[in-house]
From TrEMBL:
InterPro entries, sorted: CoA-transferase_III_domain, CoA-Trfase_fam_III, CoA-Trfase_III_dom3_sf, CoA-Trfase_III_dom_1_sf
GO MF annotations, alphabetized: CoA-transferase activity
Region (Disordered): 1-21
Source organism of the structure: Muricoccus nepalensis
The name this protein goes by in its record: CoA transferase
């Protein structure tokens, strides 16, 4: 692939640690591809962990996804940032032995291979804990490490479908159209976030325990999505109720919906607390609804949500989205027009919060805008958390295999 580090090219800049970042000193090996495991390790790397991304000689297939500039995928500039890239052919005895040596010196492993894959390489949890009892092993898969579906293949769309999310994204009255995706691989990202949180928790627990032993974490796409289904499980279990698609509305709160505006754009409005509802109705000239006994509480408003939505939409259709948003924000009603990426980049709040970070990427040969990490730490600027962009395949082979592997293995 074009990202491959070529023999004879100058070595990359030495990896930079920042002792202010909370996970500095935590060494994590990533044995992942595509999205879930690499997303987890990207979060850990942003927080300061030393992440060693193990790639096959051709690189993670994700390097070939999305738009490309100068032959390189711009998404990977973000996806691989702050990570060390090494190449290993795990079909060979030498590749497996080097991976064992890395894992003997690591705090944690994150992998999202098919269940049973690392066992077939002789690197299952029992074997890994025999050589490094402290190792935390986070395993991310489609359906989990057990159960009747464990061996079925899965991608993000399958997690959305089986976890219950895609059923909810349909629009009522459009049964002939497939329920849409949210536009990103949300189940992979969710599983990655859960994996990062569970891994840090496991390392904390290990280091507080007298035994200091690592553990195995089992995460899957389906249960990650299923965990977000709010009160739907008890609603079904106790009442036999199956929540149906509501489009842009919520069945449990009103008024909260997305309304058309005069310029063809949309405005999301959340007016579902009692005082906010009254301010909203007053601003749109519907004091009669604010005073209506039927609307005195959330349950009554939910029962009459269609009437409220019609009243709000009648008002928003008279104004461009930005003017409608300004009018409602002036009376402290939560709302926002629907932003596309151009809106995000041009918005003063995104700019003031340093949510758009310019990162020099030598592979792409340009300054690449990166999204900042979503967490903020006192005394650490968001730009300090992006130390380098996604590197070339195998860019850190020499640093890792010649320097790191000379260190003593974890006791």
């Amino acid at each position: 692939m074009p990202d491959e580090a070529k023999p004879g090219t100058p070595p990359p800049e030495a990896p930079r640690e920042d002792p202010r970042l909370p996970l500095t000193g935590l060494r994590v090996v990533e044995l992942g591809h595509y999205i879930a495991a690499p997303f987890a390790t990207r979060l850990l790397a942003d927080l300061g962990a030393e992440v060693i991304k193990v790639e096959p000689p051709g690189g993670d297939p994700h390097r070939d996804w999305g738009a490309r500039v100068n032959g390189h995928a711009v998404w990977f500039s973000i996806h691989g940032r702050n990570k060390l890239s090494v190449t290993l052919d795990l079909r060979t005895a030498e590749g497996k032995e080097k991976l064992r040596a890395l894992l003997a010196r690591a705090d944690a492993l994150v992998e999202n291979l098919r269940p049973g894959a690392i066992e077939r390489m002789g690197l299952g949890p029992e074997a890994l804990h025999a050589m490094n009892p402290r190792l935390v092993i986070a395993r991310v898969s489609g359906y989990g490490q057990d159960g009747p579906y464990r061996d079925k293949p899965a991608f993000g769309a399958i997690g959305e479908a089986m976890g219950g999310l895609r059923h909810l994204t349909a629009n009522p009255g459009q049964a002939d159209l497939p329920p849409p995706r949210c536009g990103v691989s949300i189940s992979d990202d969710l599983a990655g976030m859960y994996a990062a949180m569970a891994l840090v928790s496991a390392c904390w627990g290990r280091d507080r325990s007298p035994e200091g032993k690592g553990t195995v974490i089992d995460l899957d796409l389906v249960s990650s999505v299923f965990s977000l289904m709010e009160g739907m499980l008890p609603e079904y279990g106790l009442l036999g109720r199956v929540r149906q698609p509501m489009g842009a509305a919520l069945p449990s709160a009103a008024p909260t919906n997305t309304y058309p505006c005069a310029d063809g754009k949309w405005l999301a409005v959340a007016g579902n607390s009692d005082p906010i509802f009254r301010r909203l109705m007053t601003r749109i000239g519907r004091e009669d609804l604010a005073d209506d006994p039927r609307m005195a509480g959330n349950s009554g408003r939910c029962a009459n949500a269609a009437e409220l939505d019609e009243a709000i939409a009648a008002w928003t259709r008279t104004l461009p989205a930005k003017e409608a948003q300004d009018a409602l924000e002036a009376v402290e009603v939560p709302c926002s027009r629907l932003f596309d990426m151009k809106d995000c980049v041009e918005d003063p709040h995104f700019q003031a919060r340093d949510m758009l970070l310019p990162v020099e990427d030598p592979l792409i040969g340009a300054t690449v805008p990166h999204p900042a990490a979503p967490f903020r730490f006192q005394g650490i600027a968001p730009r300090d958390m992006v130390r380098w962009p996604g590197p070339a395949v195998g860019a850190h082979n020499e640093h890792v295999f010649e320097s790191l592997l000379k260190q003593e293995a974890k006791p």
